[in-house]
Amino acid sequence: MARYLSPKAASLVLAVLLIVAVAVVTLVCSQLSGGSQRVATDAMIKLTIVVGMYMFAGNSGVLSFGHISFLGLGAYSAAWLTISPSIKASLMPGLPAWLIALELHPAAGTVAGGLLASAVALLFGLPLTRLAGIAASIGTFALLVIFYATFSNWTPVTGGQGSLYGLPTFTNLPIAAGVASLTILAAALYQASAAGFRLRGSREDPIAARAVGIDIRRERLIAFVISAFFVGMAGALYAHFLTVVVAGEFYLKLTFITVAMLVIGGMRSLTGAVVGTAFVTLFSELLRQTERGFDLGFVVVGGRLGLQEVGLSAAMLLALIFRPRGITGGRELGGLGTSR
Amino acid sequence: MKMRYLASSILMAGFVSAAQAQETKPIIIGAAIAQTGFIAAYDADPAKAAEMAVNEINEGGGVLGRPLKLIYADTKSEIPQGAVAAMEVLDQGADIVIVTGDFDFGGTAARTANSQGKVAIAPFAADPKFGVEGIGPYAFSFSTASDTVGTVLAEFATAKGWKTAYALTQTTIQYDLSVSAAFQARFKEQNGDAALVGVDTFTMDDASIATHITRIKALDPQPDVLLLSTLTPAGPGALRQLRTAGLTMPILSGEDMDGDYWLESVPDLSNFYFAAMGSIFGDDPRPDVKKFIDDFTALHGNHPSTAHTLTGYSVIQGIKVAAERAGSIESDAIKAEFEKFKDEPLLVGPTSFDENTHINFERPMVIMQVQDGKHSAVELRAPEKIPGR
User: Is A2-251 assigned to CATH 1.10.3470?
Assistant: First the structure.
């Protein structure tokens, strides 16, 4: 079927299929208990992060370890813009007076979080996109370290090591799923666009791409800025989900888990980003449930606390050994879209 | 004890009619605490103490004729996971939620319970923000506030006749900062501004505090007493460096230096004092605390790791008192009864709350000392005047 569709149409069909999958999961989970809904909401936010990361990493071939700093920027934007002025004045006295006085709706804070992340991505992307290959990945890692150090030490503005509280509750399952769907649509449209093709061309063969006149730096920068926008929005949603912002959240652990989702699913396709998120979420949730022990009727299996971490790492190792290109192997759902 | 409870509940289930069954449904207390990760070490003993209280209360007929039941969900010492753990215990019908005793690590679970209109109790969160301001109207801490710790230490130092003090503070967590701030304020109130001869700070990353020590040694005359507001693992290292450098003056610390698990790293420690919610070494001046520590030691084979353990027991005691006065386990009823607590005699000490204060300030603490590597209780000391209150 795919070969009769234009790349744009195929990409749109792909996006619709993936969004339908997200919608079905949302509908099913909305009937479940509060605890399961929280897990599903958390998964939708992670999906937004992973698909956001994919827009840059998947299309450029440069794995990014720095996107969690954009998540942090989005979360801190939400804190700066939506916490009530009285709490802000005591928690973050270093903010300018006009910002302390400001109290926006969480939705506005979410968009602002995306925009701030994009602006910062533009600034840092200018030097970062000069780098190639492994150096570029290490550069993004440096970005993560810089922002973590800033978040955890710029106490008058970020609260330092302490937590920023008083964020209104805003993120629920439908909102998180909605933003995840929007991100999937954007990723599909981007990868079917001329800019997306140029960037993927540079991923496959940088020399040939340059020879046909592609400015790799420019294309990477475009993808970096767009992907930061969505990860920034996810950060604001995450802040309104936890209703607290702590610097320690935006560092290695979340970086590891999101990169793992992307790599396990297959970082060269949008389907891979979605499948990887679903797989890792389901698998780690399954392990977490097993940790508490369960009753098979004839035999009671005792709980083993810590199983989640061990099992997840083992699964990642197995996936990397047996499917180094991820579960999807870089292919899109039903051959739709444009992985090659 | 557990078996007896099991047997009695089976018997009870056998005899009561269906109409009464509703009444004897257990009151579920959901503990959304860390069972794995680095916070688990702090949460474990208070949870064991809560279990002891639950068993004792159930043997005595329960609360409102209903047995208590503790259920658990692991926060994995992760801030986001706290919310999931809280939802899980609420899904299983928890009437009241117990969370990790820390503003950051227990906060997410407590906020989640609050958003569902359920009472959330942190047994030992000492940050006064844990309550109405930082969490919500249904959040309570059964701990003694960090301001009280600093005040009691300052008043103890003054009573000892120590005229000048130096404050060395680790800045990693809010608790040590608040203890130090209250100590400095109160010591200056009592002995004049000049009595505080110096202040300095260090962080978790400072493996060596040699420069700090040099600054203290440069003082002439030397301060009578040193406040070392710090926590493990950095605290014992700092203490050892101070003593090795020949600083022999008395050193004061907050509850974070409670327990003897770190004592081997500072050989033959003497002249070291700290304030704690009780003595875990079997010599607490209060007989009921002493009995509890003996029972705990007999049951678990070792004394509690820190006096925070007392709060776990007290939380269950407090729930029983409030529920029986209210005649209900509904959140609003419990909250209202908690807010009427005025020097309620719980194991950890007299406990008071009001509409805005959901943590304890006016509660005596036990001053502990270490001499020749041995812990002992010095005295029970109530704060006279807490700065800023």
Answer: yes
